[in-house]
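G., before I forget:
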Amino acid sequence: MTDDDNISRRYRELPREEPPRHLDDAIRAAARRAVHTRPAPLVVPTGRQRWYFPLAAAAIIVLAVAVTMHVEREQPGEEIVSAQGTPAEEVKAEKPQSAPQPERRKAESADSRQLRAPPPELQKAPEPAAAPAPPPPVAAQDAMRAQESAPGALAGSAKTAPKASSAPPAARAESARAPAAPQANAQLGRADEGRRADSLSAFALQSPEQWLQGIADLRRQGRHEEADKSLAEFRKRYPDYRISKEVLEQLEKR
Amino acid sequence: MESPDEELMLAYGGGDAGAFDTLYARHRGGLFRFVLRAVKDRGVAEELFQEVWVRVIESRSRYAPKARFTTWLYTIAHNLLVDHWRRKGLSLVSLDGEDAASESANPARQAEGRQALARLLQALEQLPPAQREAFLLHQEGGLSVAEIAVVTGAGEEAAKSRLRYAMGKLKTAVDDN
């Protein structure tokens, strides 16, 4: 037997003190209590968590779709507001009429902006303005397309007239109007009684701004009946077009 | 076949209160004597003993059997003893190489020293705390030198040295008879 074993044996012969019974009972009771009152879990149970993610994802998708639709509905109005105050538009409107080719290009580039408010000059001054022409109604658009297919139609000279005459009626009307579009007001001013019946259809081929200006001119010339009819026609053709308050006063006052 | 301590502790962590009873029955005596002979005051020993088991109960859900349950249990006890001695202004390490304040001057004890067991007990009480703790961990907890090193946070060589010195002093006390 080694010395270490001898010491161990002697040590085990020492009195074997033990904890008192009441201490044993207290510790065991504490252990049982702890088991029956388990601490709250640090993580939410998985079963409940499983519902949170799909629900949150669905809510996000619905919200995103709703916001997108709302923005799409609101966009045209915002565009009108922004277009009204654009100085670039005013500059374009003040360009001389002697350059029909750039005017034509501007009109083509405005395809996507049919509903455009009239430029400030139109609201203030009765002078004809070569405002950038938003695309005319469907019939006029067809005419423009037909015109584009005829290369000489854009020249605006007398030489192009025969070529235009070979196009469909709407295209003919457009080709007749296109060179004279900036001068629509002047045309209306010298129109005789025989042409009054055609004035509405002539307006219909113009841009909304030009149409409204024509109505204002009619009003100034005292041709209220024609102005009323033309305005009614305009509203029928462009139900969504927002006419500014100032222009509306010019159109409705007698 | 008896379940290992680690399985019992895991079972208790899973809600089996009976597993704790078994575990407690296995270790209550050794742990109590370890604490009692370390602090030499029954009241303090009972308080520390209870505190050790409270820590075990509180740690049941976090327990992971990385080492023997006994090593973990006596580590808790060791840490509580260190706190206790620190509160009393004593340190285990500082007394490592020296004899503790001796009670050998007690005449009553010397009179009883005729008996080997009494001398052994007296010698045990005279051991420096670190050596005494190493000896008690070995005897009451059944820990190896490596496990004593883990419990006390000392190096394995230091633990081995403490145990060897303790054994040598106790042998001398017993052989004096």
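Chain B has a mean pLDDT of 83. The longest helix of chain B spans residues 17-39.

More on Monday.
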